[in-house]
Design goal:
ten-stranded mixed β-sheet; about 20% strand; about 300 residues; alpha/beta; ATP-binding; 14 strands; UDP-N-acetylmuramoyl-L-alanine:D-glutamate ligase; 10 helices; PfkB_dom
Amino acid sequence: MTIEALTIGRVGVDLYPEQSGVPLAGVSTFAKSLGGTATNVAVAAARLGRRTAVLTKVGPDGFGDYVRQALDGFGVSPDFVGTSPDLQTPVVFCELNPPADPPLLFYRSPIAPDLTLTDDDVPWDVVESVPLLWVTGTGVSAEPARTTQRKILEARGRGEHTVLDLDYRPMFWPSVAEAREAIGGLLDHVTVAVGNRTEVEVAVGTADPDAAADRLLARGLRLAVIKKGAEGVLVATPDGRSTVPPQRVEVVCGLGAGDGFGGALIHGLLSGWDPVRIAEYANAAGALVASRLACADAMPTAAEIEELL
């Protein structure tokens, strides 16, 4: 199939407690789900009818087989999922305590396969021609993926719909300063950036949404999307800005909400919607994911989003 959106970055197997509100020591059973930011975003966009693929890597193990099978089941092409022969597919344990902001326990040592992407793993023709390319901040947290992702963006030449998910997770970085240099360096190669207050502060040095939007647009971006939690979402372009109010839901698990938001953002960009409509739609998608358990399996359909709206 012809790919409409290619996401690049993290993949893993998420293990969710089937008991909420207790620490990991008190959990007796877990449910398995496909996970990883770039992977979840591709799944979320596929749920909305988009033809997606993810560029990533797994280990030569049963969990790697599961990743490919799960992607195929979700309608996401597994064609660009490589294998790192000496590494294991990452596993992530979630603790639903508290459910709104669950702690995560990552097993990605000595390095995750998705951070070993090299030039040989990249479908360069797809990178240059795909209507939408999605890269992540986590994708530049280590070499060789850091250099590879930069080369990918250079090859694309800041083509339309080149999106940076700021995706900052402190456990993957030795310091904020290194993260700012690496993630901030990507801003000159993308047209859209999306992140929360913490993530924009890492990227551009301020957590104030309007000031951060100013700094992002000054780098040549066409759209800055800043998630403000209970205060809604700020969308800013060179022509103006608006804040979209939040969707109110009862939170079951906060994980994956941002990825559901991202998949809907992809759908809106490819549909040519205006920024406010995109933000409203993405907000609803994220809220639906937050009201459910799991990430990839929780991604909503277009009918579910429209019903909430």
